[in-house]
Design goal:
Helix content is 41%, strand content 12%. The protein has nine helices and four strands, in the order H-H-H-E-H-H-H-E-H-E-H-E-H. The protein starts with a helix and ends in a 9-residue tail after the last helix. By secondary structure, it is of the alpha/beta class. It has a four-stranded parallel beta sheet with strand order 1-2-3-4, sandwiched between helices. Bound molecules: adenosine-5-diphosphoribose. The site of adenosine-5-diphosphoribose has 16 residues, from strand 1, helix 6 and helix 7.
Length: 251
């Protein structure tokens, strides 16, 4: 009897987990999707779970999300695209209401901060006990952000911005998502310029002459203009507060 109860309770808890995650996903998708578009959030969910359900959570490559990205592609906002690396918090403070980050896209906003994975022989979605970011490269969460970021960068257009961390030794890290994926996806027929804003806190460890930024410049396709600016974080935040309504650039 005890065994049966344990099995039943476990099954209920597990299926609730899938149900909660699924319900949140669909609810957020619907909240984020304008009514006049053809996006069907149940279809988006199916495309999403098809990427990892029933698979070994260390064997979900970025391509597993190809179908998802074709069902729910990120919409570009020319001249208002904002990328970031090592500056997540300030990037979202500054972009709010004015610029578009990956996390402002429908999929990005639904999945930001979430953890998920599947398991071989199961049709469930698990939200705990999943591999961490560096535990194995092809984990469902990391592969999603790699694949979705590639798409987000590929559609970037006009004058784009990246906020880099000037309080780090290497503001442009070639192993970050920005350095290893997004930069390589920028195309010169769509993108006019990239402004790298080196955001510094009290400890300034890098300036625009930094060696790592030379690598960033080298990665950009000819035809994409490169601009670099050094801006203290406090200045960015004050400027944002003062110009919240008008969205004037703070760099
Ligand atoms: N361990 C755990 N989490 C990590 C790790 C790691 N080693 N590396 C990256 N992450 C996750 C974290 O959630 C972190 O907040 O990725 C996030 C971003 O990492 P950063 O190194 O700060 O930046 P980057 O890898 O360049 O990714 C940001 O990717 O999603 C796009 O458009 C977005 O331009 C942005 C870029």
């Amino acid at each position: 009897v005890v065994v049966v109860v344990v099995v039943v309770v476990t099954a209920v808890v597990l299926s609730n987990r899938t149900d909660t995650f699924k319900a949140t996903f669909i609810q957020e998708c619907e909240r984020r999707t304008p009514e006049n578009t053809s996006t069907d959030c149940v279809e988006v969910w199916s495309a999403f779970e098809q990427a990892y359900v029933g698979r070994d959570p260390c064997q979900v490559p970025p391509e597993a999300y190809d179908h998802l990205l074709s069902v729910a592609p990120p919409q570009p906002a020319c001249n208002r695209m904002l990328f970031w690396s090592g500056t997540k918090e300030v990037a979202h403070q500054v972009s709010e209401g004015c610029y578009q980050t990956m996390e402002d896209s429908m999929l990005g906003s639904v999945l930001d901060g979430m953890t998920w994975c599947g398991k071989e022989g199961s049709n469930e979605t698990f939200t705990s006990g999943c591999p961490g970011w560096t535990e194995c490269v092809n984990n469902p969460v990391r592969s999603f952000w790699s694949r979705a970021s590639a798409e987000f960068a590929a559609v970037a257009c006009g004058d784009a911005v990246v906020l880099l961390n000037g309080s780090r030794d290497t503001p442009f890290s070639p192993t970050s998502i920005f350095g290893s994926i997004e930069v390589k996806k920028f195309t010169s027929d769509r993108m006019k310029s990239l402004t790298a804003v080196l955001v510094t806190k009290d400890n300034v460890l890098a300036n625009c002459e930094d060696e790592s930024l030379k690598n960033l410049q080298k990665e950009l396709k000819p035809g994409i203009k490169y601009i670099c600016k050094e801006v203290p974080e406090s200045e960015l935040l004050t400027c944002k507060k003062d110009h919240d309504q008008t969205c004037v650039p703070c760099w």
